[in-house]
Amino acid sequence: MTAGPSQNKFSARASALARRIGMPAVILLAAFAFDLAFITDAAFDDAGPRFIDLLLFPAIFGMVFCALWAQKRAAVAAVAASVVLVGYTLVVRYFHIPTYSSVLANLSITEVVAGVEILFYAARRTRPGVAFAVISGLVLATLTAVSGRYTEGLSGGTMAQAMLFGGILLGGTLVFAIPGRDRMTNPKRYEKLQKLNKLVMGQWPLIGMLSIALLLEFTFTYASRAHGLPILVCSIIAAVIAVAAPRRPADAMVALTAVMLLSAMVTPFLRLRYDYPTPGGVPGTQIVAGMGLVITLVRAVGLAKATSRIGALSAVVAGACILNTGRPTPTLMTDPDNIASFAVAGVLLLGISVAVGLALRSRDSERTQVIQSAISDAQTSERMALARELHDVVAHHVTGIVVQAQAAKMMGEKNPQVAVEAMGRIEDAGVEALAAMRRLVRSMRGDAPAGSSEFSEQATTDLAADLRTLIERSNHGVKTSMKLELPPNVPHEVGRSALRLVQESLTNVGKHASGAKEALVIAEVTGAELHLQVTDDGREPHGRPAGGSGGYGLIGMRERVALLHGRLSAGRAPGGGWRVEAWLPLEGEE
Questions:
Q1: CA separation for the pair 25, 298 (Å, rounded)
Q2: What does the alpha-carbon distance between residue 118 and residue 75 come to, in Å, rounded to a whole number?
Q3: Any domain includes 3
Q4: What is the DSSP letter of 537?
């Protein structure tokens, strides 16, 4: 049960490391690790002088250094790489050091990868004239190394292959490098490159396996004297399709099936011997591409919708196995035992691919649900915060307006001056209510933090001063006294919630405390808590309160207190009236 999380953790760490050091450095280090293992093994075998193969490492180290240096000084690194290639070619000829071919003859995998990366940085980051000069020098140095490191002379066919593969590498690298030079003048093209980079970063495990398989197929092509070049081309196309498959996986599966069918039909006419291995009649790169595309398709559309396309691909693989397993003559495989063994291997690989695809699809579904749940929770929290602010702020001012209007109505005929004064207070409360509404609208538009309002925006670090201002500006029609014993360093979140609790309590005094003549606000710190108490001497109202009651005031207070992990008590006081008490922790819970 712990294998899944451990695997996800390892994958996340590997992805983070790849992003930190960069994908070019990861590919370069992978190629170096391969050469390190391969050349070291060759140095200790019985073929030729012992340890002489280790003399290849200085050139490999030099090219790795130049490739890493090219990220900062591309032109200088390209010149240095050219010197390393030409200089070490002389060393190879003088000491008769055996060389190993990869994509290019007589060049190790690390040298080829490093050269491509240097070429990329030179084309991307240097001025056009400088780029042309250093790239030309690097190409000439590479041709010198290819032709000069073979002590017995290089055949025309091998040189032609090297020219062909070198041209493919040169053209492909320039195609990706040059468009990135004008990212400021052509942002749309640069945006497409960014999308391509994102696609590549998301496919790096598959790209790594395809790269290894393609490097091996390049080696097989050299060994077969270019007879396997058509298969290599099909394998390159299959690798590109597999990497680009996340964009349109269903169409990619159809295209890959067509490419593999073409490769299977061409293979019998090439008269390939065992120097170009095709396990089960299918080249290794195409096997990796097929498995990767099955995973991508199942992950994207599910197994039910992918069955028909996977069936077509499986039929092509089965046909290639029967048609191309026999070597060197093109004979059909008819032995039931051989067919059964290959069928078991194929079903096993297909089952692994489908299982991985379903696992990734399940993980994607879980991630989507988590994200949707987080979004829903955030939206609910935002709505609740706005609802509390709407109730606490606007209802507070509107209640004051209603109370003052009732007083003006009752006293207007007896004492017009009282009515005039009440109208002034009503005007002030209306202006404050409009200001509060504007703040709420600004918050809903995203111009201010959610839940901000007049007191949350104007609150200072002195809670006692803020409470005095709140009480003095209240228009609930009841004389209010206060007893404040507060330190100057009350946390901001606690102070803001305390203001809201006192404000809502005073609003309720004006709405519900029938016949109240006095209210008392107590705020003090006891131990590690802020203690709030608001009491009045009113009696329970018999009629409808001023402005009506939505019943959300106490709910909002409980929500605020719960957010701070505090306690709230509200009810009739023993001596009459109403009492609200709250205890708010001054330090948040760990």
A1: 31
A2: 9
A3: no
A4: -
Q: Whats the size of the chain, residue-wise?
A: 590
477-502 in b/e form (b: 16+ CB < 10 A) is bbebebeeebeeebbeebbbbbbbbb
Domain of 245 in residue numbering reads as 200-336
Q: How many CA atoms lie within 13 A of 133 on its CB side?
A: 10
Last residue of a domain, one of 282, 316, 336: 336
Question: For the chain, what is the domain count?
Answer: 3
Nearest-angstrom CA–CA distance, 401 and 104: 87
487/530 same-domain check: yes
Q: Are residues 60 and 172 in the same domain?
A: yes
Q: DSSP states of 51-64 as a string? A: TGGGGGHHHHHHHH
- Residue 532 included in any domain: yes
**41 and 129 belong to one structural domain:** yes
What three-state secondary structure class fits 117?
A: helix
Indicate the SS3 state at residue 571: strand
Q: Tell me whether the omega of the peptide bond preceding residue 328 falls within 30 degrees of 0, making it cis.
A: yes
Inter-CA distances, 423 with 397, 415, 416, Å = 14, 13, 11
Do 212 and 177 share a structural domain? no
- Tell me the C-alpha distance between 247 and 15, whole Å: 21
51: left (phi over 0), alpha (psi -120 to 50) or beta: left
CB atoms within 10 A of CB 3: 7
Q: Tell me which H or E stretch contains 272.
A: none
Q: Map residue 554 onto helix, strand or coil.
A: helix
72 and 173 share a domain? yes
Within a 10 A sphere around the Cβ of 326, how many other Cβ atoms? Answer: 16
- DSSP, residue by residue, 416-464: HHHHHHHHHHHHHHHHHHHHHHHHHHHHHTTSS-TT--HHHHH--S-HH
The pLDDT tens digits of the residues spanning 321-373 come to 988 887 666 678 778 888 888 899 999 999 999 999 999 999 888 888 887 78
Q: Are residues 43 and 138 in the same domain?
A: yes
Q: Same domain for 177 and 205?
A: no
Please write the tens of the pLDDT for every residue from 266-324. 888 887 777 788 888 899 999 999 999 999 999 999 999 999 999 999 999 999 998 88
User: Coil, strand, or helix at residue 581?
Assistant: strand
**Bridge partner list, 535:** 520, 579
How confident is the model over 91-110, as pLDDT tens digits? Answer: 988 888 888 877 888 889 89
* In-domain check, residue 385: no
